[in-house]
Specification:
Layout: H1 15-22, E1 38-42, E2 45-49, H2 55-75, H3 82-96, E3 98-111, H4 116-121, H5 129-140, H6 147-156, E4 157-158, E5 161-172, E6 175-193, E7 196-212, H7 214-217, H8 221-228, H9 231-235, E8 236-239
Parallel strand pairs: 2-5
Antiparallel strand pairs: 1-2, 1-8, 3-7, 4-5, 5-6, 6-7
Helix pairs in contact: 2-3, 2-8
Length: about 240
């Protein structure tokens, strides 16, 4: 994505965002105590943070992932033009200093009910398995009326379809690393006999490993924060981790 950061703009506030902004504040928008693993719903993504990550890196990851989603939202609909949206999303991350290490894609059909935690963990590097499992388990225990679920479901789901992002992060050397799984799924039901139906999910997944060059990001950090404005307060909500 050969675009200068200053040329990237975010969409105007939508009716959905205005409703979230005026709704009751999240139960908590704070991360877990330093030195413990933590997680958050970040618009349409579940982000998880290893206990070794310092707060500044967590903030950088959180803000840059929200910024990239919103920048992609301005250009494309994540549900009806997922491929273009995904390219814009990852392209925006690269402009901010995220360096892609590897990229793979897979398509599969999974019978319902799907063990999403097991499926997504199978895509991830082994060193983040527990972080993925624990953050998904914690998210699945949230009440449907929680701020986190309200944010996520409105961004990630449209009817029987969805675009789900899961991103566990950890520190390696001097920089944070993240494994990102971006899943596009559709829900299908077929007649399998008399009063019998097969229910399946068609799932296309992109798996990306990436590293944030903090030296590059530090040059745009303040601009990212300024362009996001008040949005992190109502588009991000913590997920309590046990």
């Amino acid at each position: 994505m050969s675009v200068h950061f200053d040329a990237i703009t975010l969409p105007e506030l939508s009716a959905r965002e205005r409703a979230l902004e005026t709704a009751s504040p999240p139960e908590t928008t704070q991360f877990s105590l330093v030195g413990t693993a933590s997680a958050q719903i970040n618009e349409g993504a579940l982000l998880a943070f290893d206990s070794a990550l310092p707060k500044q890196m967590i903030d950088d990851i959180s803000n840059s992932l929200l910024f990239a989603q919103l920048a992609a939202d301005k250009q494309f609909n994540r549900h009806t033009a997922t491929g273009d949206w995904q390219r814009t999303f990852f392209g925006t991350l690269s402009v901010m200093g995220w360096i892609t290490g590897s990229l793979s894609e897979r398509t599969e059909v999974a019978a319902s009910p799907v063990d999403w935690a097991e499926l997504i963990t199978s895509y991830m590097p082994e060193n983040v398995d527990q972080l993925v499992l624990s953050s998904i388990a914690a998210s699945q225990q949230l009440p449907t009326t929680s701020s986190a679920i309200r944010i996520w479901s409105n961004a990630a789901l449209v009817g029987d379809e969805g675009v789900v992002i899961v991103g566990p992060s950890y520190i390696s050397g001097d920089n944070p690393n993240m494994a990102i799984a971006l899943l596009k799924f559709t829900f299908e039901k077929e007649v399998a006999g008399f009063l019998r139906w097969d229910v399946n999910f068609n799932i296309t997944t992109s798996i990306v490993t990436t590293e944030l060059n903090e030296s590059i990001y530090s040059k745009v950090r303040n601009s990212v924060i300024a362009k996001l404005g008040n949005r992190p307060k109502y588009l991000i909500a913590s997920v309590p981790m046990k």
